[in-house]
Design brief:
Elements: E1 8-11, E2 14-17, H1 28-32, E3 35-37, E4 40-45, E5 48-52, H2 54-67, H3 76-89, E6 95-103, E7 117-124, H4 134-137, E8 139-143, H5 164-176, E9 181-185, E10 191-194, E11 198-203, E12 206-209, H6 220-231, E13 236-238, H7 243-247, E14 251-256, E15 260-267, E16 270-271, H8 279-292, E17 303-305
Parallel strand pairs: 8-9, 8-15, 12-13
Antiparallel strand pairs: 1-2, 1-7, 3-6, 4-5, 4-6, 5-17, 6-7, 9-10, 11-12, 11-14, 14-15, 15-16
The structure holds ligand PPE.
Length: 308
């Protein structure tokens, strides 16, 4: 999806016009994937933007940087404020926010340590990630021939740029097979996640999702869905899931900041349940979309209002 330009990008502490936020071609991140990023949504609540789960996103970004041994150069408070200011500066009522911290100019060679650390935040309008009808109709997906990274190869729970080559392999293969998305298994063959989404499986009224040890990114939407499902009285189990459980599930859905809550209607051309969005998925969607629209009380304090 082509990126929608907005006006200003926060670049190392200052706002610069969108077209002037450039880096040098020798930047380390360009060569070696040396970056950490986040994806955050702001939703329109009563005419103004409200940022969804800002604190957990900033915490995860700082943890990813810690794992990757990169000092952000700002406190969490300063960085959070910069995110709020970026939404404000661009007068966006609802948007997707992309903070990125990366190794810039300084040296060629694998070690990132001689290179600068740069930080940017931009925000832009982004619609439905897996297609306009996906939230209601569901998507057709396939199991990827690419596995998620094995433990001790990369750090699946950190949102590090270079690791997204694995996601790109999964996504490219899916597109070439006419699927909307691919589901990757972990190195042991258990269900892991999509190229940019966590996965949930419903069977016999119980909700299952792979555990953090299943080479997944600990999604913030995943955490929100677990919380909402438990609020609604469902049993949620974080368990290793064999691939064939997907084929006999009553319902399957993806979660992610970009994907929000998207039902899966077929996997490897096998129909999931009735082939339509199921009742549990719909119930959880109603709760999630109700909260982010400001129509259901924000009982977990997930929204940070942006005051114009
Ligand atoms: N797994 C992966 C690999 C992943 O990239 C994401 C987010 C998730 C799970 C869900 O995490 P969360 O957003 O915290 O619920 N993927 C981001 C990037 C998508 C993109 O194409 O870029 C996102 O949804 O913002």
């Amino acid at each position: 999806m082509a990126v929608q330009k907005s006006e200003f990008i926060w670049f190392n502490g200052k706002f610069v016009p969108w077209d002037e936020a450039n880096v040098h071609v020798t930047a380390h991140a360009l060569h070696y994937g040396s970056s950490v990023f986040e994806g955050i949504r702001a939703y329109e609540v009563r005419g103004a933007p409200a940022i969804f789960r800002l604190g957990p996103h900033v915490d995860r970004m700082f943890n990813s940087c810690k794992i990757y041994r990169m000092d952000v150069g700002y406190s969490k408070e300063e960085f959070s404020q910069a995110i709020v200011d970026t939404v404000k500066a661009n007068k966006l009522k609802s948007c997707y926010i992309r903070p990125l911290v990366f190794r810039g100019y300084g040296a060629i060679g694998v070690s990132p340590f001689p290179c600068s650390v740069e930080a940017v935040i931009f925000a832009f309008e982004w619609g439905k990630y897996l297609g306009p009808e996906a939230i209601e109709q569901g998507v057709d997906v396939g199991i990827s021939s690419w596995r998620r990274m094995a433990p001790s190869t990369l750090a699946a729970s950190a949102k590090i740029g270079g690791q997204y080559i694995n996601s790109q392999f999964i996504k490219m293969e899916a597109i070439q097979h006419d699927y909307v998305e691919g589901i990757a298994l972990d190195v042991n063959g258990y269900v892991s996640e999509g190229s940019g989404e966590n996965i949930f499986v419903i069977r016999g009224g119980v909700i299952y999702t792979p555990p953090l040890a299943g080479s997944i990114l600990g999604g913030i939407t995943r955490d929100s869905v677990i919380t909402l499902a438990r609020d609604l009285g469902y049993v949620v189990r974080e368990e290793m899931l064999p691939r064939e459980m997907l084929y006999v599930a009553d319902e399957v859905f993806f979660t992610g900041t970009a994907a929000e809550i998207t039902p899966v209607r077929s996997i490897d051309h096998i129909t999931v349940g009735t082939g339509k969005r199921g009742p549990v998925t719909e119930r959880i969607q109603a709760e999630f979309f109700g909260i982010v629209a400001g129509e259901i009380q924000d009982r977990h304090s997930w929204l940070t209002p942006v005051v114009w």
